[in-house]
Amino acid sequence: MHRLTANTLALASVVAGKMAIACRLRRPPEGWRRTVGILLRSEPTRFAVSAFGLHVPGAAPTDAAERIERRGAEALREYLARTPDAHFALEWLPAITRRRRVESVDVALLAFDADGRLDRVAPFLGAGDAAAITDAQRSRVLAAIVAGYNRTRERAEVDRPAALQRDVEHDLRSNDPACLAFARRLLAATCLSVDSVDAADGAARFVPPRFSLRRSLGSGVLTFVMRHCQVASDVDVWVSAHHAGLDGVPLQELLSGLEREWGSGAPLFPCADEGRPFMPPRVCSIRGERAVDEMLSFVDFSPVMALRRAVNARFAGRLHAPATFGAVLAWVLEAEPEFAGVRIASTVDIAASNGYDRDVDVVPLRPADFAKTANAWNDFIEFANEFNRLIALSRERRSPLRQGMSTAGLLPAAVHAHVVRSNPAALDDTFGSLCITIIRDAKVFMAPMTDLGLGHGFFAIGSTNLPSASGTPVTAVSIKGEAGHINGHYAALRRAIARSSTLRESLLDSTA
Asked: How far is 422 from 419, CA to CA, in rounded Å?
């Protein structure tokens, strides 16, 4: 009976919404932000990008670490205040996480112990700090936040922000508007903490922080981690984001802007992995959430890129547009046993247009569906042309998936969430069961994940031209997926890369 009621309400909502759109009483909803707000709510759904060797403004190598950290926090706040994509906070509702615009950007500098307990908070507030509270009130609020964070730090992310806010407000036991406003601002602040690695281990800096041990204060979109370099006034910067607040390419642009403004060095990245991943699978989820592992590798994608060049040169007259790197990679990956017959999704950055904010679309295709002839290259050409057709529709906001997300956006959030959770298997048919996302300017790009679906995991790929100690360019590839299910993905990726060389040679031989 409950399911029948929910389905009836869903149908009525969609019919009423479409009638309102047809009568121009409303416009089609923006479905992407609604979708990620329902499907990406746990700790592993956050993703991260990185920058290395940034020069903290106003800091000198002779400065004490504490001064450098505080100067970094203030300089970060000043930069984010001028960056529109940093002006968001999260609203955690029972069925969905939404983002909201905020006037000013606040930064909270957090200090953690090795086990992830919060020791102290130092606030760096933006505009509005003049409505000051007394030192005693400030200390009381900070103590309540530290205590509340530690009592809730092991809760599932979907419950933690609201629980933390309730805990803090209960501890304050005050109707003092200044105290409560100060606490709420900090709970929605951008968070920054300082991580440490073994300075003698040159590769350690490229291992991503354990963000699950240095979580945000609840409603902030961005979580930064700084690591000191060999030159004390230089830092590596990692930033994690909640997908409901910001997408991958805008986050990378935000970090690239910080890199340009502060200035940075040019580190050498680890050489391409041989035999095992750079960082083997490790747990990144919280107890009570979907159990998710993450891993990181550095690979040499030059065989895949060479195959792409050969294919585009050979079939220029038959390809409607050049085959993309993502299409070629999906094609060679699908030939591996781990991904045979899998629907592979690729993400597309969508510019703001027609009153809609910038967002993302997804192109899900099953390469095996195009294996229709005895000539594999004819099949690939058909696949690549369909891949590019869907990308073009995505950029026009007219793709089939976009239309489906828009229709789902007509449902009340609670009904939408119920429909998704009542049939999780449908997600793989709709969005694919393996996702590949590429940010071409990223250094180390750590993948997101979903709370449901994506049974084959998520590949996140950064720049294919990172300088390495061997002189050969490398690419950081991170993979997230259900715990225990991604152990063989690294080997499958290496085999796919190696097979790209064989395919290219066979293609060149056939043209001789």
From this structure: 5
442 neighbors 252 (Cβ within 8 angstroms): yes
Token look-up 């591996």 returns 336
Virtual torsion, Cα 440, 446, 452, 456, nearest 10 deg: 70
**Exposure on the CB side of residue 375, measured as CA atoms within 13 A:** 6
CA distances in angstroms from 37 to 22, 215, 268, listed in the order given: 26, 18, 37
- 366 Cβ partners below 8 Å, 6+ apart? 334, 341, 342, 343, 344
- The mean pLDDT of 130-135, rounded to a whole number, is 74
- What pLDDT digit, counting tens, does each position of 93-115 carry? 999 999 999 999 999 999 999 99
Measured on CA atoms in the order 431, 436, 440, 442, is the torsion positive or negative?
A: positive
Sketch out the chain's domains with CATH numbers.
33-262 (3.30.559), 279-511 (3.30.559)
Task: Collect all residues with Cβ–Cβ distance below 8 Å to 405 and sequence separation of at least 6.
Answer: 31, 32, 34, 35
DSSP symbols for 394-459: HHTT--HHHHHHHHHTTS-HHHHHHHHHH-THHHHHHH-SEEEEE-TT-SS-B----SS--TT-EE
List Cα–Cα distances, 72 to 60, 227, 353, 503, in angstroms: 12, 11, 35, 49
What are the helix (H) ranges across 40-152? 65-81, 135-152
Q: What pLDDT, on the 0 to 100 scale, is given for residue 107?
A: 98
Q: Which two tokens stand for residue 380?
A: 């690939």
3 state SS for 16-51: HHHHHHHCCCCCCCCHHHHHHHHHCCCHHHCEEEEE
Q: Which two tokens stand for residue 56?
A: 């903290």
pTM to 2 decimals? 0.95
Query: To which residue do tokens 């869903």 refer?
Result: 10
Residue 295's closest CA among 468, 104, 444? 444
- Residues 6 or more apart from 301 whose CB is under 8 A from it? 325, 464, 475, 497
Rounded to the nearest integer, the mean pLDDT of the chain is 93
**C-alpha span between 287 and 153 (Å, rounded):** 11
Please check whether residue 302 is in contact with residue 230, taking contact to mean a CB–CB distance below 8 angstroms. Answer: no
Pairing of strands 88-92, 97-101: antiparallel
- Contact of 386 with 367, CB cutoff 8 Å: no
Distance from chain centroid for Cα 398: 24
For residue 461, pLDDT over 60 is answered with yes
Looking at the predicted structure, is the pLDDT value of residue 130 above 50? no
